[in-house]
Specification:
Layout: H1 2-27, E1 31-37, H2 42-59, E2 64-70, H3 75-88, E3 92-96, H4 98-107, E4 113-118, H5 121-125, E5 138-142, H6 147-157, E6 163-169, H7 173-188, E7 192-198, H8 204-214, E8 217-220, H9 224-228, H10 230-237, E9 242-244, H11 247-253, E10 256-259, H12 262-277, E11 289-290, E12 294-297, H13 299-305, H14 309-314, E13 318-319
Parallel strand pairs: 1-2, 1-3, 3-4, 4-5, 5-11, 6-7, 6-8, 8-9, 9-10, 12-13
Antiparallel strand pairs: 10-12
Helix pairs in contact: 2-12, 3-4, 6-7, 8-10, 10-11
Amino acid sequence: MKIKRLLSITLAAVMILAAFSLTSCSKDETYTVGVIQLVTHDALDAATQGFVDALKAELGEENVTIDIQNAANSTDTCATIAKSFVTKNVDLIMANATPALQAAYNATQTIPILGTSVTEYGVALGIENFSGTVGSNVSGTSDLADLDQQAQMILDLLPEAKNVGLIYCSAEANSDYQVKKVKAYLENKNITCKEYAFSDSNDVATVAGQAASECDALYIPTDNTAASCAETIYGATGDTPIIAGEAGICKGCGIATLSISYYDLGYKTGEMAADILRGEAKIEEMPIAYADATKKYNPTICAEIGIDKAALEAAGYVALD
């Protein structure tokens, strides 16, 4: 009887220890996350930082390894980075900007992929009649601010403008999408619009200069190449006013923007990632998330080209940080 009792006690102790061990493993589970960032500029940098901060806050800094790779604005490098993450079998990939998302999407159908700083997922992934949920191993956050409101800003702030130039990178599908939407809105208001597409950073100055010489005002969507060359664009366009799709471009060359916080966008993406990694959410059921937008103006450039900041503030615009 004593031997049986001793065995029972020993077995119970082993079961308790095993349960404790499983609980501890579950509590301290570690994850590896790969980040593909298309290029260095303020908006994408802020989104990546927000993502990292959220993951560390949600999972614990000691429980997550984040491998951040920058593609230096090369789609080929995005593909190489994505394939390396698949080879390493990371737990999740965060793709910052549309070409990064496309590269990750082409590299794996099993590892969860979250995009951020992506304007329109249906356009980016070739999904017709996009409903707002990708439905596979992809979800994320969108940086799209209302395009009709952006177009209306041109009419409200620059009522004398009759010819508007639309500047964007032809290699970015989401830039083309935005330009087409803004163009349709403005042409419906009897504004003459012309598209000015550059292929990469090498011809930005030439294209921007031509647009400024032929137009009364310019519009630039959320475009990664334009964002990385915003100061170059400003140098080429002189005092031709520019409405920008996001704050980073506006800071470099624009007078005003309808913009989101890219840090907040990245942070939301990080929270989504934590839910997926903990098994609290299924990525195939996650709809694309959006951020609130704010009207902002660039006090420095407005002063340089004679735009009255008092009128902007009276219209509800706030100064860029």
